[in-house]
Design goal:
This protein is mainly α.
């Protein structure tokens, strides 16, 4: 994953270089399918086939092993890993709902603070969660297990559950299970005061053994999650028809959807951030989305930089299988004022199937999302990258769409949904 960072940047820079040519390109009924060379290049960059092979996760040595994915799938659906025995990864990442839950904020043992993100092709992202506080899929899988609002468990209990119910599969992947005799039933560095005290009383060797089992659990879950892929949509088939000159196949999209696509990559400038086959630049932006709870703004990425740097399960940590040269993004991560109130650009594949929207479900519909970008309200925290239409402000972007154009962009976004029988799932592509 880390090794492909330069290539991903080249793709984003190439799209950015084309934006000035696209922004002024209008359309008419007579030339809905008259795509310029610059537009064709951007369309081609959006096709799902441009993803190529799944990049390796150098921090996870078992990422490609089928037996690791089988173990990970069992763990993904195992409610015994939660404090009350009722919450699994799949409780929020529901397969039937694009591996998310359709709620404004995730709900495990209690309501969380942010929206559940889908998992299709998440293995291609250098940063996980809305704020990017984890730098790998395997490390991401560990966070919810110890979160009070999600699984609410602790490391020694999780290790003991893994030993009791998954030992044979675990040892097929990772070798002999370490001895657990003498460990407290409930101990961990992030639990209750009693659990933290019990963790502190454990020897260094005991803590390291439990941490190794805990990290391996995350690596197995990540091996399973790497099999979850986005399925092609009508937009992909339309783009291929444009590339091949198949005039008949261009009827795959309606006139409104084609106009919405033209606006998406041109006048609306949506592709500035929603670029590439997954329609995300994988970066963090402040677009003035209001906080879910008035008076309690979420700092987003700004608060996560220090967290991912200090994480013992990050790419540079002792439980990672990568060497330091494979951790470029973590090595060069930096704080900046622009990260205050910034959140990760979500991918738009199947976006119409998973309302509500934004990092805490603040906007109910796609129409509400377009209205937000057109209005460009000031950010409660930090500075929004958007400027209200009619105002020219340095470093800020205005989305100048009228009501009809906004409706057409929404029509295009709905066309990004894959057929139900090709939905997100193992081996979907």
């Amino acid at each position: 994953m880390k090794a492909l960072m330069p290539g991903r940047r080249r793709t984003m820079l190439a799209v950015a270089a084309l934006l000035p040519a696209l922004a002024g390109f209008g359309w008419s009924r007579e030339r809905d399918d008259a795509w310029s060379a610059a537009e064709r290049a951007v369309l081609a960059s959006m096709h799902l086939d441009r993803l190529g092979a799944l990049p390796p996760d150098l921090g996870n040595a078992v990422a490609e092993r089928p037996e690791a994915a089988a173990l990970g799938r069992a763990l993904f659906f195992d409610t015994r890993l939660s404090r009350n025995g009722q919450v699994a990864c799949a409780s929020c990442h529901e397969p039937a709902r694009q591996f998310q839950d359709g709620r404004p904020v995730g709900r495990g043992l209690a309501d969380g603070a942010r929206r559940t993100m889908p998992l299709a092709d998440a293995a291609r992202s250098p940063w996980l969660f809305w704020d990017g506080r984890k730098d790998s899929l395997w490390s991401q899988a560990l966070g919810p297990l110890e979160d009070d609002a999600e699984h609410g468990s602790n490391r020694t209990r999780i290790a003991q559950q893994l030993h009791a119910h998954h030992r044979q599969r675990y040892e097929q992947v990772f070798g002999a299970f370490p001895p657990l005799a003498g460990l407290p039933a409930d101990a961990g560095p992030l639990g209750s005061p009693a659990q933290r005290e019990a963790w502190a009383r454990m020897s260094d060797a005991q803590r390291d053994a439990v941490n190794r089992v805990f990290a391996n659990l995350g690596k197995a879950i990540a091996a399973y999650e790497r099999t979850l892929r986005a399925a092609p949509s009508r937009v992909d088939r339309y783009v291929r028809a444009v590339e091949t000159g198949d005039a008949a196949a261009r009827q795959i999209l309606t006139p409104d959807e084609v106009r919405g696509l033209r606006l998406f990559i041109g006048k609306g400038r949506c592709v500035t951030c929603h670029a590439g086959p997954l329609l995300t630049d994988q970066h963090f932006h402040n677009t003035g989305v209001p906080p879910r709870t008035p008076g309690r703004p979420d700092p987003g990425r700004a608060a996560a930089v220090a967290r991912v740097q200090a994480d013992e399960f990050n790419c540079l940590g002792r439980y990672s299988d990568a060497d330091a040269t494979a951790c470029g993004e973590l090595s060069f991560i930096a704080q900046s004022p622009g990260l205050l109130g910034a959140f990760k650009t979500p991918g738009l594949r199947n976006v119409a199937l998973r309302p509500p929207y934004m990092h805490a479900g603040q906007l109910a519909t796609l129409e509400d999302v377009l209205a937000h970008y057109r209005q460009a309200p000031a950010a409660v925290l930090g500075s929004s990258e958007l400027a209200p239409a009619g105002r020219v402000q340095a470093g800020r972007q205005a989305v100048r769409l009228d009501d009809e154009e906004a409706r057409q962009v929404v029509a295009f976004l709905r066309a990004l949904s894959g057929p139900a029988d090709e939905g997100v799932g193992a081996g979907a592509r």
